[in-house]
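[09:14] KT: can someone run the structure on this one? pasting the chain below
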Amino acid sequence: MGLELIENNGVRYAEVIWHDTQVEQTTFFSPPGSSFQFGLLAHKAGFVEAAHYHHSEAKIITDLQQMFIVQRGIVGVQLYTDAGDLFREVILKKGDAIVLIHGIHGIRVIEDMQCISVKQGPFKGPDLDKIFVETENDDTSI
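[09:31] RB: done, structure tokens below
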């Protein structure tokens, strides 16, 4: 199935890398200027990358992006417009990954799941981390 870019009215809300996606060489799918880079690392057997670390620099992040990688189970990721209107639900299974770039999102666990979640820090605690929004779909049963 490959990479799927999910857009609404010209705004990119999410990028999905489906579990069966394969690349011949390291490929990042996010635009170079994105505050969160999303891609696949791929090298042929025998490749060696010299020990290294990355340049440290102060960055101002004005958007908080989040990534899920499904390790087990099935989860529906619901994507909403800024007005709170549901426009898409993406069903993810083991090995699928999504980066949430813009807008309001929710999750619906379809089958007991475990995901790796990655987002920019620092984490300020459960009471300060999320802003809950009333949506057209508050019962979350699609």
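[09:33] KT: thanks! The mean pLDDT is 87.
[09:34] RB: yep, looked fine to me
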